[in-house]
Automatic annotation (TrEMBL):
<comment type="similarity">
    <text>Belongs to the glycosyl hydrolase 3 family.</text>
</comment>
<dbReference type="InterPro" id="IPR026891">
    <property type="entry name" value="Fn3-like"/>
</dbReference>
<protein>
    <submittedName>
        <fullName>Glycoside hydrolase family 3 N-terminal domain-containing protein</fullName>
    </submittedName>
</protein>
<keyword id="KW-0378">Hydrolase</keyword>
<feature type="domain" description="Fibronectin type III-like">
    <location>
        <begin position="707"/>
        <end position="776"/>
    </location>
</feature>
<dbReference type="InterPro" id="IPR050288">
    <property type="entry name" value="Cellulose_deg_GH3"/>
</dbReference>
<dbReference type="Pfam" id="PF01915">
    <property type="entry name" value="Glyco_hydro_3_C"/>
</dbReference>
<dbReference type="Pfam" id="PF00933">
    <property type="entry name" value="Glyco_hydro_3"/>
</dbReference>
<dbReference type="InterPro" id="IPR013783">
    <property type="entry name" value="Ig-like_fold"/>
</dbReference>
<dbReference type="InterPro" id="IPR017853">
    <property type="entry name" value="GH"/>
</dbReference>
<dbReference type="InterPro" id="IPR002772">
    <property type="entry name" value="Glyco_hydro_3_C"/>
</dbReference>
<dbReference type="InterPro" id="IPR036962">
    <property type="entry name" value="Glyco_hydro_3_N_sf"/>
</dbReference>
<dbReference type="Pfam" id="PF14310">
    <property type="entry name" value="Fn3-like"/>
</dbReference>
<dbReference type="InterPro" id="IPR006311">
    <property type="entry name" value="TAT_signal"/>
</dbReference>
<dbReference type="InterPro" id="IPR036881">
    <property type="entry name" value="Glyco_hydro_3_C_sf"/>
</dbReference>
<dbReference type="GO" id="GO:0016787">
    <property type="term" value="F:hydrolase activity"/>
</dbReference>
<dbReference type="InterPro" id="IPR001764">
    <property type="entry name" value="Glyco_hydro_3_N"/>
</dbReference>
Amino acid sequence: MTSAGVGRRGFLGNGAAALAGTLVLSGPAACAQAPTARPTPGEPTDPRIEALLAKMSLADKIAQLNMPQVLPDGLVPKTSPVTTDEHRKAYAAGKWRDLGQGGGFFGFFNETIAGALPVKQPRTPRQQAEAANELQKVAKGSKLGIPLLQIAEGTNGHSAPYATIFPAGPSIAATWNTGLVGAVYGAVAAEARACGTHVLNTLVAEVFRDPRFGRGCEGYGEDPYLVGGIIGAIVRAVQGTDVSRSDRTVASLCHFPLQTPNVGGLEGSSVEIGERELRAIHLPSWRAGFADAGALMTLACQSTIDGVPTHRSEKLLTQVLRGELGFRGVVISEGGGLTTLVTERVAADQKQAGAQAIKAGVDVGITWEDAYLDGLKDGVKDGSVPMELVDRAVRRVLMLKLRLGLFDNPYVDPARAEQIVGGAAHRALALQAAREGITLLKNDGGLLPIKSSIKRIAVIGPNADVPENLTGDYAPWPPKNGMPTVLASIKVAAPAGTRVTYAKGCGINDADRTGFAKAVATARGADLVVLVLGERSKGFLFEGATGGEGVDAADLNLTGVQDSLVKAVHATGKPVVIVLVAGRPSSITWPAEHVPAIVQAWLPGERGGEAIADVLFGKCDPGGRLPVTVPRSVGQLPIYNDVKPMRAAADGYVGLKASPLYDFGHGLSYTTFRYDNLKISRRRIKAGETTEVRVDVTNTGHRTGQEVVQLYLADQQSSVSLPVKQLRGFAKVELKPGQKRTVRLTLGPREMELVDESMRQVVEPGTFEVQVGSSSARIHLRGTFEVVAR
């Protein structure tokens, strides 16, 4: 049976029915136990798992390799066992059609589809836990008694009703605070496991280098070193040292190995890069997640990379992932990912696609694709799929369930779920993360924080009073404790006696200017205008979305007539503060030149409105620094901080500078900092040794503030062309007025290595320049050290 459609858009759109698959087993294969292959050398196994595997029929094994997305009827194939409680119980019991006991579900708790679908009464956390337990009880009572594995999105919170909605990827990255990142995702894991989820997916380890790409709102920016630091913190927090604990889950890193830079910035389009760029730029963050932190699941990207679709790439999914990066977990498919092999015409049909994918190393299908249903059964039957490959994948799934402790206790405590999910401590953490991610891009004349002398504030703009636009893809919905908008939060935070007025002005992405007159009149009646603009980053399921999954941009300008609204309000002569609520950087060239203050709020989550108000009124320092480069125009793409020397020296375009609008790492504070006394502990080291960089940072202003100390390294001569400088260390410090702190950053082999002509990671002898500053463009101190041969 062949399938049509590609990716989640194709899966959830008109091509959904074409992905239907039905497994029908007859004859000897239906009842005979297939011979079990020996475990693959080097992969974890257990006698208990081997004994169970020996009892399983082919139907049992294939069912364990399918964990279908739980979506409403009409959004999934009719043969998928997900649309009703009865169907899901049948799958858990091994009574769905002719399949064995199902392996689990993807998104079982996300019944509102992150708020896209109206649900009269979503399950409470207690009810979620009870529903999970009920399914596990059914599974436990089946012939084999294998527990279910529940996978959920976790990019900005456990994707289930009433879970805490934390800031989305760019907001998290903008904090540059790995300790805070760990605390946030530790809380997400605790809420998820309390409800019965075992895996948090969409923890995005890939580096995003094309801001046109809508899914960039899920990730942590453009720099491999920053993303690697964040991912390491996430995995350690989510999994901990014992993933079977009641507050830990498996970390599923996405989307291996990359989706951008892709052709045209369009989701699903091919990636055309060489192996050196793949290894030097895109694999380091995965190494941080797998080799260093030990993540136990990953989702294979649907991309075709240098002509080879990832879902059939044995080189990427086995040789690199398991051989080089030390991965010892389960690989799941992207939504509709198995079908990409047919779409890209490297497989003739679903049967061939399944054979290619399981050989490459895809263990589990999360969408109901024939490749891992009848196609896989037929492949085993005719010998095109060796049983050893099926056993390999099933063994990995069962081992993961064993490590999670599910064979001994698959149940959760509903009372604990009720107590933990959306609790005060997690809400406080969401507020802190939102505050630390807000980035002050411009503040001419010290317009911010808002002075007490300002008695009339006009809040204008399409994102001023829309709570859901504060969140990103796969956000939990609805919020347990409400979600104050920017407007509501400003009204609360404003000093007594301050008058706050509001006008929407325009929509996010339409040509309607009828609201301009009211917006201009509102601005004229105020002492200061807060103009809240940006995106609706909710992905392809949401009407009017301008960002998120499947919503890519042809340019980076403000959508609709927002630019015109800025100019109309600016023409009143009133001082204007722009607040950008968005998941991607915006090419705001005119506002950057004419508007005195600009705040990048990103997608700050359920307490984002409050955090924005806190920053505007100076209750806290804007703690964010850019995790991406902000271009002046889409015509500059690709543009990022670690460019090669010839690009760095290039002249500008006709009528446009070559430099970005705002540099990577940029962000202002309400206070000032001084850098002194750069010291390098060892100025001559052997390859493989380390040296320490120390620098004194002093708060020279009159307010407590946060500074992100950034260390860039420049290899003065190398065997291959390297970037002019690369981020190789960072630390966030909070300092009171007059306070000084010595920041220490260690440089080891990982920071000095390069990928040579033979694709080896090596540290070459030579001179390195250390550059320490407050952004990639603002370098305050420099020094050098030398690496000599061993």
